[in-house]
């Protein structure tokens, strides 16, 4: 998989997330110029022990995404 294909595969969900953000699982780019590092927030669901909690994580896509995930 070429890096260009990787860029296209990452940009598609990014555009969808910008248009229709997920309330309980916001995600997006960390910076303005890098496409591969993302920040993800996982919000604790209501009526659970995790309600009101927020888990912040960084997700970095490999440059050869999606095949880099299979290594």
TrEMBL record:
It holds the Pfam family UQ_con. InterPro entries: Ub_conjugating_enzyme, UBC, UBQ-conjugating_enzyme/RWD. It comes from the Eukaryota. Residues 5-71 form the UBC core domain. PANTHER family: UBIQUITIN-CONJUGATING ENZYME E2 (PTHR24067). This is UBC core domain-containing protein. The lineage of its organism: Eukaryota, Metazoa, Chordata, Craniata, Vertebrata.
